[in-house]
Amino acid sequence: MYEIIRRDGLAKRGRLHTVHGVVETPVFMNVGTAAAIKGAVATTDLQEIKTQVQLSNTYHLHVRPGDEVVNKLGGLHKFMVWDKPILTDSGGFQVFSLAGLRKIKEEGVYFNSHIDGRKIFMGPEESMRIQSNLASTIAMAFDECPSSVASREYIEASVERTTRWLVRCQEEMKRLNSLPETINRQQMLFGINQGGILEDIRVDHAKEISKLDLDGYAVGGLAVGESHEDMYRILDAVVPHLPVNKPTYLMGVGTPINILEAVDRGVDFFDCVYPSRNGRHGHVYTNHGKLNLFNAKFELDTRPIEEGCQCPACRTYSRAYIRHLLKAKEMLGMRLAVLHNLYFYNNMMEEIREAIENGNYAEYKAKKIADMTEKTC
């Protein structure tokens, strides 16, 4: 069940009740593709850095170690020792990202594994079965993410097929949730809106999938090469046509400013690899801009990454020390930078929720963006 606690313009302060606990929204989901966040971050760390939801990838876990292996070990929660919600994406994005290794047909998609080249088939039913084996809290519907530069004709056909696949996903999940051997018989299903950067196709698709009364709705196929302006334009067009009484999830987005702008447009779920990927390369977020810790000016800097930050890195270590670790290729440097970035994102979401509750989100957003673009660190 999803409830809206407060609205401030289009921004929503909500609460999603799940079998694995309550999610306070807006929320950023920390990305652990293969059931672990890159950068040597353990689930015990996630508790400390305010993580509410962990996201894992259906395709990658199907390939290795195998969803049936995870199922035999009690599902993802027991496997990775995490008792809060987990969202699994459907494998549909690999249809987009593994373009050279796949063939799309009505029944589903034929892949060659990026690991060993073996042939894999995944369709709506297979995706639901894999995600049921993983026993995640929220499963994503299987879809195709068409390229934003694809022709109108291709995008129209792709979106129509994604709708048909969504119906099949819903039917298969209902069947799986009725089986006594299913680990999580209260698994939720989110559908995905597609349509490239073509507003009319996006809006029509949003209206069509809204009829299915799903547990939540995602906007997919953005942050894949289009401009920020196109992203915001599509959100302006699409979000008003998705059910306001269900969570809205913008997949794969994004920078702190992207998140602030999307919240203002009614989005309340986010995920992105940026904080962990950038952290592993020495790029860390602060309230006064992003820092590159490899810069020589930090060699003797005894300050924490950000004054006043309560993350595990900032409470103890200096910029100079973390810079040294990164340059020496010590894993601890990457780990500390990733922990800081994830804490920064999760803490920002906490601030966003508070600002919406207080009815001053517009002021908060304006100040936050102004501060982060100052570059005074």
Describe the secondary structure blueprint for this structure.
Layout: E1 2-8, E2 11-18, E3 21-25, E4 27-31, H1 43-48, E5 54-57, H2 58-63, H3 67-72, H4 76-80, E6 86-89, H5 92-97, E7 102-105, E8 108-112, E9 119-122, H6 124-134, E10 138-140, H7 152-177, E11 188-193, H8 199-210, E12 216-219, H9 228-238, E13 248-250, H10 256-263, E14 269-271, H11 274-280, E15 283-286, E16 289-292, H12 319-327, H13 331-357, H14 361-372
Parallel strand pairs: 4-5, 4-14, 5-6, 6-10, 10-11, 11-12, 12-13, 13-14
Antiparallel strand pairs: 1-2, 2-3, 7-8, 8-9, 15-16
Cofactor: Zn(2+)
EC number: 2.4.2.29
Pathway: tRNA modification; tRNA-queuosine biosynthesis
Number of helices: 14
Across the major sheet, the strand order is 4-5-6-10-11-12-13-14
- Say how many strands there are: 16
In whole angstroms, the N-to-C terminal distance is 43 Å
Helix content: 40-55%
Any idea what the CATH architecture of the largest domain is?
A: Alpha-Beta Barrel
CATH superfamily of the largest domain: Queuine tRNA-ribosyltransferase-like
Overall geometry comes to globular
CATH domain class of the largest domain: Alpha Beta
Question: What's the number of structural domains?
Answer: 2
Secondary structural class: alpha/beta
**Unreliable parts:** none
Kindly report the CATH topology of the largest domain: TIM Barrel
Roughly what fraction of the amino acids lie in strands? 15-25%
Instruction: Tell me the Rg in angstroms.
Output: 20 Å
Mean pLDDT: 95
Active site: 89, 271
GO molecular function: glycosyltransferase activity
Binding site for Zn(2+): 309, 311, 314, 340
EC number: 2.4.2.29
